[in-house]
Design brief:
The structure holds 2 protein chains of 2 kinds. By secondary structure, chain A is α/β, with parallel strands linked by helices. Chain A is built from 7 helices and 11 strands. The termini of chain A are far apart. Chain B has one domain: HUPs (Rossmann fold, 3-Layer(aba) Sandwich). Chain B has 4 helices and 7 strands; from the N terminus they run E-H-E-H-E-H-E-E-E-H-E. The chains are: A alpha/beta, B alpha/beta. Chains A and B meet through loops of A and loops of B.
Chain lengths: ~220, ~150
């Protein structure tokens, strides 16, 4: 497989190195000549010292025959431009973008980037797993970024405690379907009574997150 | 380099560029290696840009590449030398030559260097020679062509 990696920082460097070790053909684009020389020194003559945001150079890197273009620079705008150009100008079958600001995820999806990777969201997810920062834990993004799989741990005072699942007025497009109680996974039926300490697993549209939070856990701090 | 049999080298890789120094370095290697148990391998690298895969059928079809190899064989024949010619496709000439020398466990790599100047008159050594000098595991000889009158 031929992969073009755009961005020769830490992520790009280790990504290229791993891909080469797996037997793939890799071209790495890095616009900073000093950094490009440094990477060349370390992993060989696979580095193209040009800006991947420019179509001319992306073409010179072989985008016309690339199987994957992975834009992993530290700049979301650059990554979006690179993926869009790869997709629409060079017909690259698969584009992958690093998204640094989680708020940009939807835009990337909307504009046709095939796969987005958000280190910020991943780290946030790990932190939330140990310390419930938002109380509504993001487990995964599904359906091209439109749906989110979330977990809510019910505490003393949560409005859902003592109520059945069927009695909750969940917003349209949201559903709770499983819970973890005493370290056992249970499916949620309409007559399932929710208890303090339950971890309720739900799925819903991203924009419904606030409403889901209010129904299961109470008002968010931001909402007052 | 090997001490046995007073051989200067056991296996030399000669980097052909298609330039004026090819004849000199092929003749040099063949004459130094003649009548001893030595091997001389002439490597010509066809540099491919990233728009084509490395296994594309380019070098074998290249008349220029064949001309370079034929010329080297002609020089070797003229000094009764034994020369193996190899055509390689790569992204970078310097790296490909060094890789070939390392893969063949050569103890000498010989490169020719045309005398060129940049705009402004500074000597231009190119990329392949510095790379080979820095990276080749074996001894490296660089043969620079004489400075022509127009260069002075």
């Amino acid at each position: 497989m031929f992969v073009i990696v755009v961005g020769g920082g830490k992520v790009g460097y280790f990504l290229a190195r791993e891909l080469i070790q797996s037997g793939h053909e890799v071209a790495l684009m890095e616009r900073d000549r000093v950094r490009a020389a440094q990477v060349t020194e370390e992993i060989g003559s696979i580095v193209i010292a040009h800006d991947g945001c420019e179509g001319k150079y992306l073409g010179e890197a072989g985008a016309n025959r690339a199987d994957i273009v992975a834009a992993v620079t530290g700049d979301d705008e650059d990554n979006l431009v690179i993926c869009q150009m790869a997709k629409h100008h060079f017909d690259v079958p698969r584009t992958i973008a690093r998204v640094n600001n989680p708020k940009n995820e939807g835009l990337f999806k909307h504009l046709g980037v095939d796969e987005i990777v958000s280190p910020t969201r991943m780290i946030l997810g790990s932190i939330e797993a140990d310390i419930p920062v938002h109380e509504l834990l993001h487990l995964a993004v599904l359906g091209g970024g439109e749906l989110e799989l979330v977990e809510a741990q019910l505490r003393d005072g949560s409005p859902a405690v003592g109520r059945t699942a069927g009695s909750l007025a969940l917003p349209d497009g949201c559903s709770i379907f499983a819970l973890i109680r005493d370290e056992r996974a249970l499916s949620v039926r309409s007559d399932t009574e929710l208890r303090q300490g339950d971890k309720v697993i739900g799925i819903g549209r991203t924009e419904c997150e606030g409403e889901l939070h209010r129904i299961l856990l109470g008002e968010t701090e931001a909402a007052g | 380099m090997p001490e046995a049999n007073n051989a200067i080298f056991r296996r030399a890789v000669v980097a052909l560029s298609g330039g004026p120094t090819d004849a000199t370095i092929v003749r040099l290697a063949c004459e130094l290696g003649r009548s001893r148990h030595t091997e001389v391998i002439a490597v010509h690298v066809v540099e491919l840009d990233w728009t084509v895969p490395l296994d594309a059928d380019v070098a074998e079809r290249s008349e220029e590449a064949q001309r370079v190899l034929d010329a080297a064989e002609g020089i070797a024949d003229s000094v009764h030398g034994n020369l193996e010619c190899v055509l390689v496709q790569a992204r970078d000439v310097g790296a490909a030559i060094v890789d070939e020398a390392a893969a063949r466990e050569a103890d000498l790599l010989i490169l020719g260097l045309p005398y060129r100047t940049r705009f402004g008159g500074d000597f231009a050594i190119g990329r392949a020679v510095p790379y080979a000098l820095k990276s080749a595991p074996c001894a490296v000889w660089v043969v620079r062509e004489p400075i022509g009158e127009e260069s002075q």
